[in-house]
Design goal:
two-stranded antiparallel sheet, two-stranded antiparallel ribbon, alpha+beta
Length: 96
Amino acid sequence: TNPMLEAFGNARTRRNGNSSRFAKYVELRVRPEDGAIASVHVHTMLLEKARVSSHVEGEGTFHILTQLLAGADAPLREALGFVGARASHAAFGYLA
């Protein structure tokens, strides 16, 4: 996983402030005639997609959501609907 993707797939958990929510699935194909490796594919999957809208108490959502709200200027926040009381990530319990 690269650092750019980590913001989309890492979250704060009770045990780790930067826990990866990615999993890797390795698909190994062998030739039936001699058992030799024919191909290998590594699939990266994002676990806990529900973490975007909810999470266990004491944990957070994916870092990208907090980073987006922390770094967005006023026009972007307005375009995304984060105005007034919703203008800060602190307004959302699941982002804290």
